[in-house]
Structures are given as C-alpha cells and as structure tokens.
Amino acid sequence: MLNNLFSGVFDSTTQSVISVPMFLLCVGVSLAIGIFLALVYSYKNQCTKSFVTTLALLPSIVCVVIMMVNGNIGAGVAVAGAFSLVRFRSVPGSAKEICSIFMAMGTGLVAGMGYLGFAVVFALILGAAFLICNLTNIGLSKSADRERSLRITIPEDLDYTNMFDDLLKKYTTNYKMLSAKTTNMGSMFKLTYHVTLRDPSLEKEFIDALRCKNGNLEIMLSAQEATVNEL
After folding, report:
1. d(CA 46, CA 48)
2. For residue 193, which of 139, 212, 184, 214 has the smallest C-alpha distance?
3. What is the pLDDT of residues 69-114, one digit of tens each?
4. 172-193 pLDDT tens trace
5. What per-residue confidence (pLDDT) applies to 32?
6. How many CA atoms lie within 13 A of 33 on its CB side?
7. CA distance to 72, 134, 154, per residue, from 123 (Å)
8. Is 44 left (phi over 0), alpha (psi -120 to 50) or beta?
9. Do 217 and 82 touch, CB atoms closer than 8 A?
10. What are the backbone angles phi and psi of residue 46, rounded to the nearest 5°?
C-alpha cells in the first residue's frame, strides 16, 4: 500500500520502481555525506553559512534527481542542462569552492545510482585529501606573508616614473607597478604597486620614508587581495 502511494503515474512493468525504504536510505546516506563534506570544507577555512548549507544539501538533491531519472537518457540530458543553467547564473567562485561543489554532486550522483558503499568511500577519500591539502602549504608561496598592495597618492606635478625606486629597492625584494590613475579632478595621481617586503617589521619605517617623498599625502599598505575569479 505504501509503495503504491509513492509510485509514479507513468510507471510500468518495464521500469524499475524505487521502494520507499530504499528511497529514504539513499537520501539519508546522501544527507550524511553532504554534512560530512560541509564540515570538512568549513574546518580552518573561511566560508559563508549559505555555501556550507548548500554543500550539505546538494548531495541529497542530486541523489533524488538521479533516482527520479531512473535510467531515462532523455531525462538525464535535461538534468545536465538544468545544472549547467544554474551554474552559469550563479556568482563565480574560487577554484576550491567549485571543487567542493563537484565533490558534492559526484557523491550525490553515485548514491542516486544505488552504490551507497562507493559513495561513502568516495566521500571519505576526497574529504581526507581535501583536509591534507588544506592543512599543508601545498601551492603556497614562501613569501605570501610578506606580499602587500601599496597605494600612493602624489601631486600631479611630480614625475612618478622612477620617483620611489630607491625606497622600493631598499625595503622590498620585489615590486611591480600595476596602475596609475588621476583623482581629485586631475590634481593628483594614485599609484598602485604589488610589493614583497624585505622585512615586515619595517613597515612603518617604509611608510614614513614614502611620506617624505609624496608630500605627506595618503599612503595605504595592505595585504594583497585574493583574486577569487581566477583558477
């Protein structure tokens, strides 16, 4: 009686019908896997509550969709197209976020096909690998803690071409000028540099030396902004 209640109106003898206990088991395992992946991603990693919630629920959503497709090739193509539309309508994320989304979708796909053991093993292996990569310094530059963004404001009558080269060579090991733009109705220039400090403890001394050259106008030295739209 319970199985008849949850049977589809288009079910026939040539199609396999998913029983209610099996449906609940697959959804429960997918939800547990999603919560596990969300906890792994949020461990020592900056993230928003909405993204963690999405990561926790996505495997069970994909699992249900795959179970409802039930071997229908046309429906499978339609589902793939729907997921593509959702992806391109969303805000671009970092490579780590995209990888986490694919992890969640992959485990949900495996669980939806009925391979619950493979789904759990797959989630455990990828979760362990994600933690190892997150806790180690793989791919991290040795000078990352010394890299800064430098913004200097100067009057329009000063030639900025090589004006600060002597100080940059003294206090940094590497520097690159990114942009120069006018501001304040063209009466000032704003210069932007990416620099690698030689000694982070000399930041104030470095700024004081720059102030003597730019007429004590605005100077900002900050951590380099991460470009989240690049892989």
Report:
1. 7
2. 214
3. 765 656 665 665 566 555 544 556 677 888 888 888 889 888 888 8
4. 998 999 888 988 888 899 999 9
5. 94
6. 35
7. 26, 16, 54
8. left
9. no
10. -75, 130
Residues forming beta bridges with residue 176, ordered by sequence position:
194
Rounded (5°) CA angle 22-110-127: 115
Rounded CA-CA distance 67/115 in Å is 12
Please classify residue 213 by burial: count the beta carbons closer than 10 Å to its beta carbon, then call 0-12 exposed, 13-18 middle and 19+ buried: middle
Q: What is the pTM of this model?
A: 0.65
29 token code pair: 């395992």
Look at the block and give the residue holding tokens 């509550």. Answer: 49
Q: What is each CA distance from 39 to 48, 53, 56, 70, 84, in whole angstroms? A: 12, 10, 9, 30, 26
Residue 211 phi, psi (nearest 5): -65, -35
pLDDT tens digits, one per residue of 155-175: 988 888 888 999 999 999 989
